[in-house]
C-alpha cells in the first residue's frame, strides 16, 4: 500500500508514459523533474509519490529495442513496469523474454493477439499469465440509427479496425493466458470525458480478470468512477498526471471508494 493507514487511489493508479526514440513524447509539467523529457526520471518521480505500477508505451519498432531495454532497466528498481512496444507486438517468445529480462514486470500485447496469437499463447505458457497483459483498444460501434451497438477492437495503436467485437476478443485474451486486461477506449483518449464504464464492465464480465480502466480520465473523480461505475481493479491515467494538472499528492490523499 501507499504507506498510509488505509489504501488510497495511488495504490490502484497506473500512470502511462509514452516514449519515442528514448524520450517522453511530451515534456512533463510535474514539479521536481529536472529533465521533463526523461522517462526514467519521470517514473522515479511517480515512484517517490507512492505509485507501484506504470505503463511504458514505446511507440518505436523492435529495431529500437535496445533503447527500451535501457529505460526498462532504469525504472525497474523503482516500480513494476508494464511494457508495450510497437503497438503491442511481440515478434517472438524470445523477444518478449528480452523485455522481461530487462526488468519489465509484464509485457502488453495487442496487435499480436490478432496477427500472431500462437506467439502470445506460447509467451504466457513460458513466462506465466502474470507476465503478459492484454490491451484492448476499442472504439464505439454505432447502429444504422446513430445508437450504440457495442465496440470494435482496433490495433496498430487504435488506428486499424479489426471487425472483432470486444467481448469475444476479451475471451480470447483470457484463453491465450493473459493475466490482466487494459480496457482502453480509443475514442476518449485525450478528451477528458472520463472512462467508458460500460466498456470496462463488458470486459470485466467477459474475461473474469482484473481490468484496468483506460482512456479519457481528467480528474480524481474520474478515477473513482472507473472503480465504482466501471468495476475496474486499476485505473490508468496519462495526460492528467503528465501535465501536472492533477497532483500526485492529491491522488495519494484520496481514499479508495467503498473502503477497498
Provide a descriptive summary of the structure in words.
- The protein contains ten helices and eleven strands.
- Strand 6 and strand 7 form a beta hairpin.
- The mean pLDDT is 95.
- With 260 residues, it is of the alpha/beta class.
- It has an eight-stranded parallel β-barrel with strand order 1-3-4-5-6-9-10-11, surrounded by seven helices.
- The longest helix is centred in the N-terminal third of the chain and has 11 residues, at 65-75.
- It has one domain: Alpha-Beta Barrel (TIM Barrel).
- It has helices spanning 39-48, 65-75, 93-102, 111-115, 117-127, 166-176, 197-207, 220-228, 239-242, 248-253, and strands at residues 13-20, 23-24, 53-58, 80-85, 106-109, 132-142, 148-155, 160-165, 180-185, 211-214, 234-237.
- Pfam families: His_biosynth.
- Its EC number is 4.1.3.-.
- It comes from Saccharothrix tamanrassetensis.
- This is Cyclase.
- GO terms for molecular function: imidazoleglycerol-phosphate synthase activity; lyase activity.
